[in-house]
Specification:
The chain has 287 residues and is an alpha/beta fold. 39% of the residues lie in helices and 17% in strands. The protein has one domain: TIM Barrel (Alpha-Beta Barrel).
Amino acid sequence: MNSPCFPSRFAFGSRSLDLRQAHVMGILNVTPDSFSDGGELLQGGRVALDEALYRAQAMVEAGAAILDVGGESTRPGAAPVSVQEEVDRVVPLVEALCARLDVIVSVDTSTPEVMRESASRGAGLINDVRALERPGALAAAAASTLPVCLMRMRGQPATMQVAPHYEDVTREVGDYLLARAEQCLAAGLERARLLLDPGFGFGKDLGHNLELLARLERLQALEFPLLVGMSRKRMLGALTGKEAKERVAAGVAAHVVAVMKGARIVRTHDVAETADALKVCSALLGR
């Protein structure tokens, strides 16, 4: 595998990670309808803060370097939530995590208000499946001084899996991400603040996902750190015939392939298993 063309240390607010090795991002969804863990951290429609903190602590102890807090489901067919509802779900948890745990806190959001409020509470990363295309998001991200992960999603969650089509999925995903990165640079975000995510499962069928994974090293030519997430996704169910929570081994395998092809952050529900696998990857990459 080729050596990365970006600096080895990447800053996430007041913390940083050495991207010569791969790191685990633990998923902390506070939504009622996420495909695998929806509703698990809600009680009576509100975030169960103590339970969320307990799960977050367990993820950190299991090896998560980043926790990704999401308050709006982006599963296929998901409906949007109001701005206030997303703020109410996400921001208090971000504040509590930053106050109590030694971990980078990411916000999985496309909403400018959530970006601003989370940044003011200590968040270290904005993780946007819409690549800052929602009105006001680019300006909010630029003003935050935080790094941003730009993801490629074709369409919107409600419709993204309706007959997706690509002539060359890896090239088209790369072209889109590079164009969005250039828009960010023009808006004042430094290159050293950008990560890219090809968006496995977002507007892509099984064939597209497999082709993208097989050719992931081509995206290294864009010279940005790569973040990927395939944890428990439908593509793994199609390959294994298993339900979401039974796809742990398949997700670990997919993430190992991605890391060996250049990914440096993997987003997962299954932190302990993934962290162990990435220790093997890091040992090999270190050689």
